[in-house]
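cache lookup: miss for this entity combination. No prior model stored, computing from scratch. Input as submitted by user K.M.:
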Amino acid sequence: MPSYTAPVRDMQFVIHELLKIDRYVATLPGFAEATPETVAAILAEAARLSEDVLQPLNAIGDREGCRLENGVVFTPPGFKDAYTAVAEGGWPSLIGHPDYGGQGLPYVLGLAVSEMMASANMAFTMYPGLTTGAIEAIEIAGSDEQKALFLPSMISGRWTGTMNLTEPHCGTDLGLLRSKAEPQADGSYRITGTKIFISAGEHDLTENIVHLVLARIPGGPDGVKGISLFIVPKYRVEADGRLGARNALSCGAIEEKMGIHGNATCLMNYDGAIGYLLGEAHQGLPTMFIMMNAARLAVAVQGLSQAEVAYQNALQYCKERLQGRSLRGAQYPDQAADPLIVHPDIRRMLMTVKVFQEGARALAYWAGVTVDIIRKHPDAEARQKAEDLLGLLTPVMKAYFTDMGFVSTNLCLQCLGGHGYIVASGMEQFVRDARIAQIYEGANGIQALDLVGRKLPAHKGRAIQLVFGIVRGFCEKYTDNAALSPFVKPLADALERLVTATQWLMRHAVSNPDNGGAVSMDYLYLVALVALGYQWAQVARVCKNKLSNPDDDSFDRAFYQNKVVCAQFFMEKILPETAAHLAKIQAGADSLMILPAEAF
Amino acid sequence: MPSYTAPVRDMQFVIHELLKIDRYVATLPGFAEATPETVAAILAEAARLSEDVLQPLNAIGDREGCRLENGVVFTPPGFKDAYTAVAEGGWPSLIGHPDYGGQGLPYVLGLAVSEMMASANMAFTMYPGLTTGAIEAIEIAGSDEQKALFLPSMISGRWTGTMNLTEPHCGTDLGLLRSKAEPQADGSYRITGTKIFISAGEHDLTENIVHLVLARIPGGPDGVKGISLFIVPKYRVEADGRLGARNALSCGAIEEKMGIHGNATCLMNYDGAIGYLLGEAHQGLPTMFIMMNAARLAVAVQGLSQAEVAYQNALQYCKERLQGRSLRGAQYPDQAADPLIVHPDIRRMLMTVKVFQEGARALAYWAGVTVDIIRKHPDAEARQKAEDLLGLLTPVMKAYFTDMGFVSTNLCLQCLGGHGYIVASGMEQFVRDARIAQIYEGANGIQALDLVGRKLPAHKGRAIQLVFGIVRGFCEKYTDNAALSPFVKPLADALERLVTATQWLMRHAVSNPDNGGAVSMDYLYLVALVALGYQWAQVARVCKNKLSNPDDDSFDRAFYQNKVVCAQFFMEKILPETAAHLAKIQAGADSLMILPAEAF
């Protein structure tokens, strides 16, 4: 049976030593409360919850799945008690707005907690996780009345939330959406339509579920410009907050899926259900994108989370399983064989996963701080820069982290050989669960199009220029630093490849838009590798500095030394992939677009 | 529901136009019988079997799985009838030795048929597939009496065969093997031990199962040098060929696995079962490797087979599913949206799979011809060269084809978005089934070690020098051919990278053996990419030649034009990966080996 131990030490390193969140105490509300002691207490308590309550339910959830009976969805055994524990522990309110009962703590802490919970039980964590996005949409677009009516119960965890976009004939292309919203005399709407793939669409964990549903108000514009967003609660909510009548919506089926069996993926029927317009009419898509962007960062962290837990279990196996001898001769001559971890190719797999997840954690948590800067920083320029950066890097993290999450879980399964293919090892569940993250909240190809088609050209490339400036500034600052040159030099090379690729795109994507689409995924990977390379170079700088200037002698020297080795591995064994991506980009779209469809 | 149509046209192109198997009519027995008409008839009949009989059972096999009741394993509904159809159709005997009832046709035809069957139903195809390896071991190492007793029934398909290597504590490291074989007065042995992960170890398809079992004769040497191979039939076989008493062996459990549910993966208990020494005592491992090498080629084809069937189903979806508009503007303005296949990133995924499977088919079938040259060619030098090449490329094909088979099935799943994650689409079964091929018959990391540690240095690098010579000769011959230069130039560049990597290995792997292990997988990929690049360059040459010099005007011009585009895609979008692999190789083992085990 697999196990999980939250990587608290690494999280603290990222939060305090790499990001130095105490920098923001004066400018960002909530950061003053995030003292090292409070952070430590939160991480320790979230670790306990994840390790002791959620992880033991992970395999059960996979095996038992969800059950639909007469319109009622039953979650797997133990999920309801666990959800109650999560809500009563105050976890859903951690980063919620204090006006509605939230604790107002930094977003980055919410990310750390959600990483742990997702490592422990991804299917379970989606129930509270999706609520976070719905809360955000209501916070930003809702009327005061809507906020007062829905937010306190959602932030407390008493109710959960969902996102209803997809219909049987329309996923990515929301312009095809058909669900209807008929205006009523009282200002409400009657929602009619069928939505599919609705995660946590129906369940037995809470007394109410707040659905956010995209639908068309008759008479509005065609395509995406005629889509509006509605709050459609499972049970209507009276003005005093008490639950009213059951709304005309129901779960028609739950999907049989490859993984995340513990989460109910529902077909939802809306049969004239009463809904309330959220934000402006026909402005549903921009509001939905607010949710989507937050959700995309959360999904990126899911990729990282599955890599982390798979890594821990593969590592334990590789330390214990005796098989073969080191190529340098027996390392444990008193045993029948050496443990797997002596073998270089096993280490290649483990190190690939280790540097992915530690680098991804650094980058994701940096993004978490950026979210708070966007929302709370008093300086407009700081907010705008943060928004540019986060906008650019959100699709990059979503696609690269989830692709690598899947690659990582598979590398970890591979470490176990045939045993990894057996259900009882738990490894194949990590693979199946991780697979969905490459698809939902916008398939990864869509992320690449968002990057190349929208985020890159916006404001004449302001965001990518900002990235160039930050990375180039770092490289120039440390260019003569001999200790850092093994990190700075490869990073500078990778950056130049990204610059070249960007120039290629500017020259070729306007004349032939297919060039943009054809190279979008390679370009996304190039950005991801530079961003992670920058994180690892920073890690090397911070750790080398600590090793040269220890504040006291009792520090964990090995931790910092190991980080430097990981940075070296990233530079030598991962970053060279930038060369292949650049070459593929420079080949353009021709070889993809020549064939007529019937020739495939 | 997924479907499958055997790619007969592409198979014929490879067999007749690329490999030109009629060249061997004079030198290789069996090739004279393989006239174009016979080949066409065989492929058509195998296609019918695969499409109509096996494919419809694929999802059923996955859903129902195998069942163990009181020691009896029941295969999924329909499997027994299908197996009977396969045996009665004479398929198991296709390439079997004529002395024992085989048809003696070229090995490459057997590969084509097994590709089709595996595309249609991989779990089913393993039942007859594993028998092929057991037949081969008995053919090569068996006594005349053993051959006469076992081969006719195995070649006819009346009995199946298995390979019993793995034990609970020992997989790759067979030196740890504990199963015992006690010599008996009559020359037989009593086999005792537990074997795990035995594919098709027990089933209800045939009246007998011939297990080949590795065990130790007491008193023999320790480690792998004391392992012998035994024939251990489920039912003893009398001298006249009739079945005798049940042997003391049984299936103790069937494994619950990620995929290939239709194949019974058995824990086998040998409780003093009667076995017959196959080949010399203590020489079990070399004999087992005869089986393993044939099996590895078959597993390589499994990787290709899952890519092919997943591709067909993804392609159909991408042609039908309307979603979004071409970046160049609506291509089908009369429809609500354009089909997915207009999108460059969708084409990137499809083309990646298409050029993998078509290139892999060319390389695998070439290997199939090589097998016949090794076995049947009258000229010793031709045999030796074929043996060198096949020895070198077998681990390369096994690892690269199965890695890419998994990548491909996942790319195909991704084309369907959320629908690909739903069980009913069938895509996720291809992913789960394809996953095992990276593990069994030697995990892919072991293939890389076999390549770098054994095949590469053997005979002072004779095999890789042969590869260099072939590819370099091709490049030099066509270096001034303007029409071929888009293919020759990238191939020559890739070859030089492989040469550089080989020189690096020669310089650095002796002084530090960990360098060999650390770069083995990157080196394997480099060899694979050059080998496939060579195939694609050959395809481009053959097709351009055909287009310039058509033998008649009625030929399918589009087929040849499309092949040239695929070759271009391979050169521009796949082969650049060689640059990254070389850079990683040149970084050596340091960053992998520095960390102590406890620092991971």
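stored under new cache key. The first helix of chain A runs from residue 8 to 18.
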